[in-house]
Design goal:
With 152 residues, this protein is mainly α. It is built from seven helices and no strands. It binds iron/sulfur cluster (SF4).
Length: 152
């Protein structure tokens, strides 16, 4: 990959959003991995966040999914669904990460991340959550079936 031009990389990933920007980041990251990490992906959050385009969320995704190191990544779905379910009250990803990881044992962080994303994509939609057939409606403080007003 490090030998590909940015334009060549774009061809491989043009099905994903923001592919031009991502191709630039991948090219820069490949060079940095070769130059500073012997071609290996580092295993600490601090080192991962030095890579192009990698913030805390992506670093946590890599730590948990690639290396099995406990980490809880907060994307837009995790943030929204955690707040609606009352697992967190913070408004930033860092706040929600801190609250949810304080609630759950670290061996459940990766599963919880995937469950919350899946629920956000398939049930607890951003604009119109499908509360009427949600299996969590009975315990969800934001359920529209109870007349609660769901936040964004
Ligand atoms: S009851 Fe509604 S707001 Fe609560 S988790 Fe289910 S879909 Fe989301």
């Amino acid at each position: 990959m490090a030998r590909l031009t940015t334009e060549e990389l774009e061809e491989y990933i043009k099905g994903v959003g923001l592919f031009r920007n991502k191709a630039k980041h991948i090219a820069a990251t490949c060079q940095l991995l070769l130059r500073e990490h012997g071609g290996e992906v580092p295993r600490t959050r601090e080192e991962l966040m030095q890579l192009a385009g990698v913030g805390r969320k992506t670093a946590n995704v890599v730590l948990a999914n690639a290396f099995g190191i406990p980490a809880f990544a907060v994307d837009t779905h995790v943030l929204r669904v955690s707040r609606r379910l009352g697992l967190a009250s913070g408004i930033t990803p860092d706040q929600v990460e801190a609250e949810v990881t304080a609630l759950l044992p670290e061996e459940q962080w990766l599963d919880a991340h995937h469950w919350l994303i899946w629920h956000g994509r398939r049930q607890c939609y951003a604009r119109r959550p499908s509360c009427s057939d949600c299996p969590l409606a009975a315990i969800c403080p934001s359920s529209l079936t109870k007349g609660a007003i769901s936040d964004a």
